[in-house]
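The instructor's notes for this session suggest beginning with a concrete chain rather than abstract definitions. Hand out the sequence below and ask the class to guess, before any prediction is shown, which regions might be ordered.
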Amino acid sequence: MVFAKRVFTWAAIFGFVMVAPLLVAESLVARLLHHTLTQPQWYYAFAEVALGFQVLYLMIGRDPVRYRPLMPVCAVCKFAFGATMWTLVGLGRTQPLLGLAATPDMLWAGAFLVAYRLTPAA
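After discussion, reveal the predicted structure:
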């Protein structure tokens, strides 16, 4: 249970540090990607949903036994984002920078599954 507390709390902290700046860095992100964001609503929707998940990770970190059923769902979300970004990189539809930025999410997904296995059911 200690492992789950640490993993989900650190994942939330890491997520806040990585995602919160997106809310004020739209022009910087557009420059890094070498184009303008033609539909900013998707950019901000992603950032806001991602921030919401950081709150969920904090909740799980505070009471892993209670929220254990949510752990695999969180792992799927983390893995899906990383896999999608790397698939798009492989297809030449986005830049490798986005794949690199999504790689930690795949590592967090693995840690979430380990935490799930180590946390006793309620």
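Then share the key points. DSSP finds five helices and no strands in the chain. The CA atoms of residues 75 and 110 lie 7 Å apart.
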